[in-house]
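Query form — protein PQQ-binding-like beta-propeller repeat protein

QUESTION: What is the three-dimensional structure of this chain?
INPUT:
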Amino acid sequence: MKSFTHKFILSLLLLCSNAIYAQYRGHVFLDLDKNKKMESAEKGMKDIVLSDGYEVTKTAEDGSFDLKKNDKARFLFVRVPAGYKASGTHYIKIDPKRENYDFGLIQDEKQEADKLRFIQITDTETPLYGEWIDNIRKFSQQQNATLIMHTGDICYEPGMQFHARQVNTELMGVPTYYTVGNHDLVKGEYGEKLFEDLFGPVYYSFEAGPAHFVVTPMPGGDYAPSYSQDQVIAWLKKDLALKTKDKPLIFINHDLLVGKDFVMRGKTDSIDLKQYNLKAYLYGHWHNNYSFGSRDGVAVISTNAPNKGGIDNSAAQFLVIDVDKRGVSKITPKYPYLSDHIALIYPQSKQMQISNRKEIEISTSVYHTEKNVISVYATLLNKFGTAIKTAKLKPVSDWNWRGNFTVPRCADQQYDIMLEVNYGDSTQALKKFAWHNEPTSTAFLQLAWSKNIGSNVWKSSPLVQGQRVYVASIDDAIGGKSKIQALKAQSGETIWTFHTQNSVKQKLAYSNGLVLATDMGGTVYAIDEKEGKLVWKKDLSGGRLPGYVSAGVVRDGIYYTGAGNYLSAIKVEDGKTVWRNSDWNGGEGMPGELLITNGYLITGANWNALFVHDCKTGKLLWKKNEDGLRFRTGGASADENSLYVAGLNNLFRLDQKKGTLLTKSQTDDDFKVMASPLLTEERVIMPTATNGIKAFDRNALTEKWSFQTEEALIYSSAYSTPDLHKKVATVESSVRYAAGKLFFGGSDGYLYVLNLDGTLVQKVNLGTPILAEVSIHGNEVFVADFAGNIYCFNITTTKK
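ANSWER: The structure tokens for PQQ-binding-like beta-propeller repeat protein are given below.
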């Protein structure tokens, strides 16, 4: 009896011990047959890291692991090691009835030990299938992208369900990872419940190529999550403690949650990410294209969504990111929806031709979202189709290829030019264009010269001062290409180049021999017009988000620039601050132009309001945000007493002094473009996001005529997308008036000249989106396109 009692007590203690110290058990194994089940012939893998979100452990020699049970844990997840990918998912949902948690891994033949290419997408926010998905999948297949990282805002229940079905690892062909954004915390048992059901744990890590990736969730959003920032930090410390010290750390979150010190903070805990060899911080959230490098060698990388224009009218794109053992080696923006885009810019005819006695220049626009362009050849064909000459063109920017031909003996013949584009996947595209080399031409505009500055131009229209033309370029890829360049007005020859720390996305200003600019990081530059040397520099914003994208304005030796509580009036001569705004803050970047009229400074913040300040004191006089006026993408125009401004779907005429409404249009047009209205004697002419440009009666604001452009080549207007299967004919540039004509560029790549009644005078195919306004100086018209091409046209006639 005593022996039985003793055995019973021991058994009871053992059961209690197992209940108290119950464990999760399983294996990580090499899944040779890829069936997601561990079989006798398949070996376990040692030293593979696993976690339940609270504790972190490694597998034993045979690939087995034991992890103490935690009632708060919902998943077990494996840190997929470099060179491998999960045969199923990298996570398994914890189930009390489950006895074993086995994780299968398979070798990833696309990965290399010393380098990695992956794709970042973000803020897709859609339940609609679009061509961008095919673009990304095919790009990854053809150009060796190893994985896809979605940095959040999938968005709401419909978008999350759609992405789980259509944008997953199986269908995309490479591991596809997701991050929790603020709009991915939705109604449910707790904010992240649906995300977990569809995508697994909200924080986790994996390794690929030479890098260690950590994915963390947004601290808050539309609904409260069950996790805390301190909880994430506690896990993160344990995960990173098992990271190889020299391995680059790629940190993922939906927003930039750290300051310049790269310390992630909770309520009671914190972690210094620099201590773990942080080399890149990827985020989204702001719907803009803004990547920059820190003093500590960290690449801070953000992109707009691939399927629509950004909140600050950034182009739709996805990022291709190359990493090596030292960190990020290259970032390449890719613009979706383009396939075999091939355009001959010149020669086309006498109006579009640059030649001397010996050679004729060739310029082409070539772009393919999915494929890498290896080479472009131009072949001159006579009227019988016989090849006369072939020229290999050189790439000068991401869209533009250039070269030249020797002039044919018969200078008055008609020819064809065949463009041959060869891609990295060994495919080829051919396109033929007519070249009419007539002795005369009656075109309104004739090309005088064209140069490419080697980087993209966003909204910086050419600034003409005397015999110089100044233009600013952007660089959303930390490639050192953001700059201000001075060109000779008569030839386009470069005079000087000044490199800025970040992209100058908007117009330059000029005053008293100084070229003035504000970059996206909120730094102001004053540059000597002749030598290109820095005279003074001023940091206004400290690099805060959102990035600065407005165009400043000069009046009476004062440069007005900045936004929110760093909107400032600055003396041009020495950079001293006259006043700094303290009356309002917030909103997103306004990519329109500031305006001064009658002592008023008119500005705005997108998703906030239209603001009118006193120029001398900076005092806020009035603001207006009703009826769509809080959507500030474009600037305002003014006459003696009124302001004309667009807001979402309507045009407004407002009293300058008080902001009271004088007239309001009733339209269905989308005015979320960067342009300001043009005022003529009788009309208000306003570009649109989807319907080209429209003219309205100046007093009644009733529509008088419209001019439809073609489908945009890139999508920039906020939330504009081709996925709705409606035409997107965007014009981002304000219309200019000169010589009795209207001038503007379209996102379709055409330069347009219209009569005042909206009838077409001339349409010139430049083959690349034109976002910036044309600049007209006497008899010359200067144009800058998105590919970095700068053009000078001569007005040759008063053709009606």
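ADDITIONAL NOTE: DSSP finds six helices and 60 strands in the chain.
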